[in-house]
Amino acid sequence: MTVTERFLSYVAFDTQSDELTNMTPSTPGQMIFAQFLKERLEEMGLEEISLDDNGYLMATLPANCDKDVPVVGFIAHLDTSPDMSGKHVKPRIVSDYDGKDIILNKDKNIVLSPAEFPELLNYLGQDLIVTDGTTLLGADDKAGIAEIITAIAYLQQHPEIKHGKIRIAFNPDEEIGQGAHKFDVERFGAAFAYTMDGGAVGELEYENFNAASAKVTIRGRNVHPGTAKHKMINSMRVATQFIVMLPRWETPEHTEGYEGFYHLVGIEGTVEKTVLTYILRDHDRARFESRKREMEHLVRKTNAEYPDCASVEIKDQYYNMREKIEPVMYIVELAEKAMLEAGVEPKVQPIRGGTDGAQLSFKGLPCPNIFAGGENFHGRYEFVSIRAMEKATDVIVNICRLLAEK
Description:
It is a single chain. The chain is 30% helix and 23% strand. It is of the alpha+beta class. It has an 8-stranded mixed β-sheet with strand order 1-2-8-3-9-16-10-15, with helices on one face. A 4-stranded antiparallel β-sheet has the order 4-7-18-17. A hairpin with a 3-residue loop joins strand 12 (261-269) and strand 13. Helix 1 (3-10) runs antiparallel to helix 3 (139-157), helix 3 (139-157) packs across helix 10 and helix 8 (330-341) crosses helix 10. The longest helix has 21 residues, at 285-305.
């Protein structure tokens, strides 16, 4: 099977994750997909295949050379984003893209246009896989899964390409930040690994945000509005004061590159009680800690005006994996060389988000992130280039070969 054939079969599985179930995997579709993949890996004759009760699937392609080669791993995630439905995905191949608007759904007037998504023009003449505009596509990260399995199959079919032991893993719940929580690094047994979970061709990332969540609770006092003077405390109004005290320009819509932000992701309130949910992000650890202190400072400032009105609960989510990758930078250099030999120009850049690789790096498995080829993840305008998936497959093969040669 080609990488395209595999990908098209994988997107038929509904694997949206759900952070509200408090289960692992968080949705049954992920386990169904994992069981399907397990059967395919068994048919391929891979070894050390395991699928645990939490939906973590692992397998091994044994070494075919006598050298002492470090064990390398490749990882992708089973789930798709909760942001949009991944059920009944209807993929379509747009052949030899001509740079014009792509009509995803004529009846609903859903159009994928380079006027709104100029990155489309990077794919002139290529074959693109798109949705029908009613679901996401699922290239994040079923493209990564297809690339890993296709690369392993290629190595099996070409024993003249020497390689060491290769471990692969497919895990649940990356999209809700829990993909690495129950990942058994010791059982995986790799010296280092790569997540195939990046975007456009050439992306290579070993830096990500430090991340925390912050829940600000504002408690008010409800009194009949006709007799409320000097008595009522409207928690929603106090909450709006809190919101505007944060730096206006330090939000996602005004930042890029290494710039961090405060991001208000939820508001729920009445006069009596309002809850603000934030995520805090910064690549620099000192600035990250400063953002957390600023939230606490603004709570104290609010309480100075409205005593005991406000509180905040801050939870760290993950940290910048750069500090764990820098001591083993040869694994980034290895990926760069593998890309160049595949005809891909490496684009080393920070992730404005996080990957399972960040958490895995802090669990003892250094794990940079490599492109899977998709664009516009998590929504109806998602697409992936077939050539990009083929290039990602080539990069995996090259990493395994170059590691053995080294």
